[in-house]
Amino acid sequence: MLDLIVNGGVVLWVIILLSVIAVVIIIERYMYFRNIRTDEEKLFLRVKSAIAKGHYDEGMAICDASPSPFSTLLKTGIEHRNRSSFERKEVLKDTAAQEVPRLEKNIGALGTIAHIAPLLGLLGTVTGNIKAFGVLGRFGSVGDPSILAKGISEALITTAAGLIVAIPATIFFNALTGRVNTLIVRMENQVNEMTLLLEEGEAGK
User: Fold this and answer.
1) Which of 76, 116, 145, 193 is most buried (most C-beta within 10 Å)?
2) Residue pLDDT, tens place only, 77-104
3) Buried b (16+ CB within 10 A) or exposed e, 75-92
4) Segment 111-140, tens digit of pLDDT
């Protein structure tokens, strides 16, 4: 195995480094999504009950106890409850927009790795073949086949390594992107729900 890595050359080391970065990003993102996962319906009902009673501080405390993009929206809405309906909705939209970069953090980098890993593999193929044919060009024939095999090995190893990194990176990139898009749509719906909730709370006074 070590011989394969050595024969892969500098390009293979770069691909290995990218694979480590990809794994770190995937683990970090899934841990983040797990940490912000909450029972939104239950949280909404608890906050709604607190607002209906006029217990706004209690509502914000409930949000603080369950950190997530949804609870952030709820808390922001409560904090700006004295504004007009239009202003409140705009503030909630801005808050939702600020949550998007947190959701998308490092996912773009994962997509970049998924795209460039096969290209690096092809680069390794080219450089490996250049070495192999360079040997033939200099000596016409090769007495030691291992010299020629080393160049060909580098070409094949880097191609395989690039695909091995790119395929799972693409799968996880698409999965994480889909999850982010779902959360964004849900936050857009939650802006409307929070606006209606606060209007009901104000009307109930």
Assistant:
1) 76
2) 888 877 777 887 788 888 888 888 888 9
3) bbbbbbbeeeeeebbebb
4) 999 999 999 998 888 877 777 666 555 555
